[in-house]
Amino acid sequence: MTALRHEPGGPWEPEPEPSAGSFPGGQPDQQTMQLRAVRSTPPSSSDSPAPGGRAARRRAAAGAGGAGSAGAPSSSGGGGGGGRAARRRAAKARKEGPGILAVRAFGELLITLGVVMILFVAYQLWWTNVRADEYASGQVSTLEHQWGGDGSSKNHPPYPTSVAPGSKFAIIYIPKLDVKTPIAEGTDKESILDNGLVGHYTGAQETAFPWASSGNFALAGHRNTHGEPFRYIPRLVPGDKIVVETAYDWYTYVVTSSLPQTSPNNVSVIAPVPPQSGFTGPGRYITLTTCTPEFTSTYRMAVWGKLVEDLPKSAGHMPAALS
Q1: What is the pLDDT of residue 264?
Q2: Given 145, 156, 222, 226, which residue is catalytic?
Q3: Does the keyword Flavoprotein apply (predicted)?
């Protein structure tokens, strides 16, 4: 190391480096040099003891530490628009691998399917009934208007031998079940049964009209949904009444027997004399058919009855079963 030494009255000249032998005891220790260098550094204001005792020094040290931490950049704040939110998004992206995304998508699909199924069930069990009941009630009002009041005129044209498909020609009453529904010609599902109407078997399965002198007046109706006029016909027992109203007459039938379950292909239940009905010969009968069990169309059930009263409206009163 080169040091400067000043001689009085002369110029400053460099002092020659002492040789190794000029140091007493040899080369100075390196640690001693470092300590000297530290001592030669002027003490900072932060290193000097704070006046006022130990409490004052603690406060001064705390203040110095706070100032230092305030001046340092925050590790959590981040710079350049990234910051804590960016790190959270990155961590979330690392956690959501393909497996998690697939499970999430599958769960959302199941929720969507569940909502769709609930809406479908509500439509089938509730809304179809609302629409069908509204339509059937309107058709009842239309028929009653067409018949012109009580139809008590004694001079009326003869009943037709056939009715146009889809035409409404009668109203069925089942007092025990609180049923009052129009009867239409045919058993088409979309145009008749799904509209809450009761259909009269015709065509290849043609059956008698209520005003015929003999035969089986056979009807079909939904047991569930779309107005479900025949939902509770399994509750009918022998002795219960069924009334059919036409333009000029009231026809009252009494239930005699039923068949709880049979094949949909068993058309013998609507024959002129159904073999399982208990009837032994020709007569004026009625047959109600519907699906069974509930909410399925696997089988059919039948309820049979026989005519007990043909009351002209000209009599001026309703049958006893409706009064």
Answers
A1: 96
A2: 222
A3: no
For residue 224 the two structure tokens come to 């569930």
Return the pLDDT at 197.
97
Q: Which of 145, 200, 291, 317 is catalytic?
A: 291
Long-range residue pairs from 144-147, CB within 8 A, at least 24 positions apart, any chain: 146/247, 147/247
Query: Does residue 145 have an active-site annotation?
Result: no
DSSP state of 91: H
Distances (CA, A) of 117 to 34, 124, 125, 223: 85, 10, 12, 21
Tokens standing for 282? Answer: 């020709």
Instruction: Kindly give the parts of the chain with pLDDT less than 50.
Output: 1-15, 17-41, 43, 45-47, 50, 67-80
Report H helices in 96-170.
Answer: 98-122, 128-146
Distance CA 94, CA 227 (A): 56
- With left for phi above 0 and alpha for psi between -120 and 50, is residue 299 left, alpha or beta? beta
In this predicted structure, what is the pLDDT of residue 93?
A: 62
Number of H helices, E strands in the chain: 5, 10
| Neighbouring residues of 164: CB distance < 8 A, sequence distance ≥ 6 | 185
Phi then psi for 215, rounded to 5 degrees? Answer: 135, 180
Say whether 222 is catalytic.
Answer: yes
Residue 320 Cα distances to 153, 170, 179, 242, 305, angstroms? 20, 19, 16, 11, 17
Domains in the chain: ranges and CATH: 138-154+161-322 (2.40.260.10)
Q: Where are the beta strands (DSSP E) in 139-213?
A: 168-174, 179-185, 198-200
pLDDT tens digits for range 117-168: 777 666 666 778 889 999 999 999 999 999 985 555 566 889 999 999 999 9
